[in-house]
Amino acid sequence: MKVAVTYENGEVFQHFGHTAVFKFYDIENGKIVSSSIEQTNGSGHGALAGFLKDKKADVLICGGIGGGAQTALAEAGIKVYGGVKGSADEAAESFAKGRLIFNPDIKCDHHDHEHEEGHKCGDHGCGSHNCGSH
Predict the structure, then answer these.
(1) Mean of pLDDT over the chain
(2) How far is CA 110 from CA 11, 30, 63, 74, in A?
(3) 75-84, Cβ contacts within 8 angstroms, sequence gap of 24 or more
(4) Which domain covers residue 94, as residue numbers?
(5) Using CA atoms, how far apart are residues 111 and 92, in angstroms rounded to an integer?
(6) The whole model's pTM is what?
(7) Residue 85 pLDDT > 90, yes or no?
(8) N or C: which terminal CB in the chain sees fewer CB atoms within 10 Å?
(9) Which residues contact 118 (CB under 8 A, 6 or more apart)?
(10) Which of 17, 18, 14, 28 has the alpha carbon at shortest distance from 3?
């Protein structure tokens, strides 16, 4: 099984659509047997699902991820484990052992933009934050 983890400085990167690097882990019989780090070369929200499919990823471990990306990954046959924080290696190890803690209802964990007048959080599919907090 091939597991892809959004990756930055050894940690699970928290915004799937801006991922520049993935760390891939090959897992057999509950153990990591190899890993590699690969650049996405600027792929972006829509192209990242295709990038992971081309790399033959079965699973994605990530931080925040939007609903559209989740749909594209599901269509590519890639199972998503979102809402994960901390060390990428520890997350992959936990996944291999069947102990990964994740959020099955994750939508996104970002918002570096200012909300415009009349904006409603439900308008863009993000449900894991409190808009009033920023």
Answers:
(1) 82
(2) 16, 32, 10, 21
(3) 75/49, 76/49, 76/50, 76/52, 77/53, 78/4, 78/49, 78/52, 78/53, 82/16, 82/106, 83/109, 83/128, 84/12
(4) 2-110+121-127
(5) 26
(6) 0.79
(7) yes
(8) C
(9) none
(10) 28
pLDDT tens digits, 18-49: 999 999 999 999 999 999 999 998 766 678 99
* Cα angle value 112/91/68 (rounded, 5°): 45
Q: What is the CATH number of the domain that holds 11?
A: 3.30.420.130
| DSSP class per residue in 47-93 | HHHHHHHHTT-SEEE-SB--HHHHHHHHHTT-EEE-S--SBHHHHHH
Is position 132 within any domain?
no
* CB-based contact 56:1 (threshold 8 Å): no
Residue 115 lies in a domain: no
Based on the structure, what is the number of domains in the chain?
1
> Which two structure tokens, joined as six digits, stand for 114?
């200012």
